[in-house]
């Protein structure tokens, strides 16, 4: 049986390669690594299953937010428009604020992990997703978002220089 296919999308090549290596080292997943949202859209098109077979062979995407040309949140919106919710998406980014959380959770991401990532957390996300616990992940992420909202409200407003 084929291993589930995961895609890593990050414009920082070294970071993307470390994420991909972490996933590959489990021995349970195959990985496609791309360095831009544009290349990720091409990879999704390439891995689209033939008529009669639903969806895409890429089942889960680890996605950075800050990228040139098309950022991760724009890519998320595009994937949801073109592929629906058939493909799981986990944000994996150094960027975290209320607006990004709002946009990510409205796109039903399965998780929102911060860089530098924790290997155990990344693998736990993979395993839970492929155990069929995607719904739990989405709910957990939404609950984390509610908690984050409270944290964001307690932070003093940013001052402009």
From TrEMBL:
Gene3D superfamilies: 3.40.50.2300. Keywords: Phosphoprotein. Residues 5-130 form the Response regulatory domain. SUPFAM superfamilies: CheY-like. One of its GO terms (biological process) is phosphorelay signal transduction system. InterPro entries: Bact_response_regulator, CheY-like_superfamily, Sig_transdc_resp-reg_receiver. The keyword Phosphoprotein applies. The keyword ATP-binding does not apply. The modification 4-aspartylphosphate is found at residue 64. It comes from the Bacteria. Coiled coil: none annotated. This is Response regulatory domain-containing protein. It comes from candidate division WOR-1 bacterium RIFOXYB2_FULL_48_7.
